[in-house]
Amino acid sequence: MPETKPDVAPIRAALAPLLPHTLVALDFDGVLAPIVPRPEDARALPQAAHVLTEVARRVARVAIVTGRPALDAVRFGALEKVPGLVVCGHYGLERWRDGRVESPGEAAGIVEARSRATALIRDFPGTTIEDKGHSVAIHTRRADHPDAAFTALRPHAEAIAADTGLQLTPGRLVLELRPTGVDKGAALRDLVQEVSARAVVYAGDDLGDLPAVAAVRSLRTDGVTGVVVYSDSSEAVPEFREQADLVVDGPAGVLGVLQDLLIS
Ligand SMILES: O=P(O)(O)OC[C@H]1O[C@H](O[C@H]2O[C@H](CO)[C@@H](O)[C@H](O)[C@H]2O)[C@H](O)[C@@H](O)[C@@H]1O
Question: Which regions span the lipid bilayer (predicted)?
Answer without folding.
Answer: none
